[in-house]
Design a protein that fits this description.
mainly beta; 5-stranded mixed sheet; 39 strands; elongated
Length: about 550
Amino acid sequence: MNRQIRSKENEGQTYFDIQVLTRRVSRLIFYFLVIHLTSSTVIAQQRDLVKESVQFNTPKTLYLVGEKIWFEAEVTSGSNPSPSQVLYAELVDRFSNSVAYTKVPLENGKALNYLLLSTAIPSDHYLLRVYTRISPYLDMNLGISQQFVTVINPKIPPKVFEKAQGNFVKLESTGADLGTVSNGNPKPGERFQVSFEQNSQILSAGISVSNPYLPGEQVQFKSSDAYASLEQKALLPELFGHIVESRVSKSDTSLTYFLSLHGKQSALYTDRPDENGQILFDAGGLSHWDRMIIQLEDGAEMEGLEIISPVIATKFKPDFVFPALSIVPKDLSFLDQLQKASAVESYYLENYDQDSLEVVTGFVADHTFLLDDYTRFETVEIVIREYVPSVFVRNQDKKKVFRLVNEAVKSVFDTNPLILIDAMPVFDSDLLSGFNPKFISRLDILNREFYLNDRTYPGVLSFSSYENNFGLYPLAPASRFFDYPGLQPKIELDKSQFARPGSGGEFPDFRTVIYWGKAESSTIEAPKFTGEYLLWVRYTDQTGQIQISKRKITITP
């Protein structure tokens, strides 16, 4: 994959080097990193890739909608951390349907993040599974880690399913007892000690409210026990960032497609389809965005354009049976406590990182205009005529066009430049010329040839809005808009806060997780959420198999 864009002026042309640009950090509206990708350079051969082993743990298995399923994951490639930069956590229902997923950053093969439960998810048991873009296809057992979780939605009760006895009963582990507590029946507010056996290879441990609805809670199992099939896809290693995969029904390998990603920052990427109509855009260092727009050059129609979901597609084996979720009237008191706990759960202290790369412009502008420094006019055409001497507005076939001065050779280009608003390409110069720029804050101009991957443009006319919302400029009729979030920010979470109530006494102490960590001795204050709690320890036995140790703790009223 070629990530080099050289930076020097030669014979009136401008080239760029990513390393040079990162030393020229400019706080512009959009991060304009362009990477040229084709299917031949991105799609990897299975024989060239090392198998990835995925492990994860989550502190509890019982959730209400609106809560976060916290998880900690580690991905290795052989004996080294995985080079993959993106991890997927997905929730799958009993019919093999994906009901929710999230993309999170991997750093040195590790991730701590969460999957937010939508209020539209019905009450039921779900399979929570974690993997990278390529790990399932290299080795399904190593590359997918999974376990059951239970989701309660007060507004959508569980459906009635026949209580079939399936493989979930066989998943109960009988591991050794590796965790002990000084008091197995503490009262709310009392403190007790938890300690762990250190002679085994402990992977993770936790104490959380026991899930009365789920047989074999916290037990993980092999993919070969669950899946009858895994739909094969092209291997797309995500070594720099998330890859947006799309496809068109009629492939023309000479056409250029433009993808612009938008959030707090915006970025523009391009690619050409391969002979099968596949188009790949690597977002690289840009992580966090909310939406994206795809356009074909000159604003042409895109027949059969579709976005390919990055999640895996599987079918369960006929004898792999989800446990049935049954809620009875006597559970109301327990569920009432659970709702209170759910409201408090959102107040854990969390620190969110921003994008790891600085906001870098993809070109060094020859001229920059801050429009608030000038008298405001009602159209872009008048603004350019009045204030921008290096750009001309002309009439051609009864439409307005823009012509930039080529300052390198002291002439005028004879076609439209690359026109951008918040990194979104604009192909209708006539519509733009009559647009009111009252929400546009800045204009950057490059008066020389500009290379964007394999295309050459007669300069760049780049507008930036105040709110990174295109200044309310209308989308082109043929463009396609998608709500498509990028990676969730990297999160720093102090796990020790689970062991004690929040400081200040502002919220009632209804913690459902009272320990989550690497099996280190700790002093825990019992919460007001009474009932059974599960102390679990996940470890590797002498044969290399992952086992789980469990014991119950009862917090008495």
